[in-house]
Amino acid sequence: MNVRDSEIICGLLQKEGYQITQDPRRASTIIFNTCSVRQHAEDKIWSELGRLKKGLSPKGTVPSVIGIVGCMAKNYKEKIFEKAPNVNFVVGPSDIYKIPSILKRLTIDHRLSAIDPLFQVKIWETDGSIRPEEIYHTGFYQDKQHAYVVISEGCSNYCSYCVVPYVRGEFRNRNYKEVLKEIEEAVDKGITKITLLGQNVNAYQYNDVTFVKLIESVNLVKGLKEFSFITSHPKDTTIDLFKTMVNLEKLKKYLHLPIQSGSDRILKLMNRGYTRKFYLDLVDNYRKILKDATLTTDIIVGFPTETETDFLKTHNLVKDIEFDAAYIFKYSPRPHTEAEKLADDVERKEKEKRHKSILDAQKDISNKKKCLKK
């Protein structure tokens, strides 16, 4: 999602005459598009802001404008200015369309501050709820062969560990006609591969158009050679989807299906809405219907109250299912979430041990699968 948001911001600014540079030392404006899903991601931003304050080069070059956008902006709002006084503006995910006008205002403010050093303005826009549809049609794509297309924004699942509903808002679907229009615009630019994006893509529904109907329509777009989608939530994933996937020749036979934990007790605490057995049955049907299709997942270790027994259930599930790949994370408390109310009682060393154990198991599985394919 952040990659596509960054492209949208670049497209909006290019239309206003701004030029993008790969060298931050040449930039008069630096914008950080941030993530709050993990503590580690936020820590990196605070570190970068500290480095910018000291200067980017041996000569101490400092950009005239620094902005924080995305999830951290929504999460901390104006408090960012307290921790990082060198930040000039803060913009939430639903307010990114306002960035060009904010930069114009800051340009005027900088002229005034040159006359009066005490004159300083900090701008924050973090309370928006709906993005204007036109921001998805700026035509800017970083990759000239592949494009991300957002089909839904926000999330209403409220998994107990996840900050997304609090920083990106409630789940809302884009008009399927606008989605197809955006794909056609990308194809007209020579892009032949598309990834449909959403926090929970298979919950998509716009009037009578379901996710299954949407991907059937995407498959018919002329000039498109391949497409895929992420991310799917197990509770909304159906056998009907699998049967449809088989018959769509342009659709990549790939499913990213986060399990998070193999323990029913932990899954319930996470508010995931399914059981271990439900997930195993889903995977079994997926592999029966789509033979040789790819399956990947997300896993969190060290969730509050996770015992060795809970962890072993997850570890054994990974070995039993044999995912093609897994993204494994150590739990970190996130602001606003229900899990934040629970004691973070799994020690850091234990989290690291469990993380390594599953990571090593998955590496062995992935390597074995690669050898079999050869």
Report on the architecture of this protein.
The protein is of the alpha/beta class and 374 residues long. The protein has 3 domains: 2-125, Rossmann fold (3-Layer(aba) Sandwich), CATH 3.40.50; 141-251, Transcription Regulator spoIIAA; 253-374, Transcription Regulator spoIIAA, CATH 3.30.750.200. The chain contains 13 helices and 14 strands. Strands 1-2-3-4 form a 4-stranded parallel sheet, with helices on both faces. A 3-stranded parallel sheet has the order 5-8-11, covered by helices on one side. A hairpin with a 2-residue loop joins strand 9 (205-206) and strand 10. Helix 9 (239-247) runs parallel beside helix 11 (276-289) and helix 12 runs parallel beside helix 13. The longest helix is centred in the C-terminal third of the chain and has 26 residues, at 348-373. The two termini are 34 Å apart. Residues 114-119 have low confidence and may be disordered.
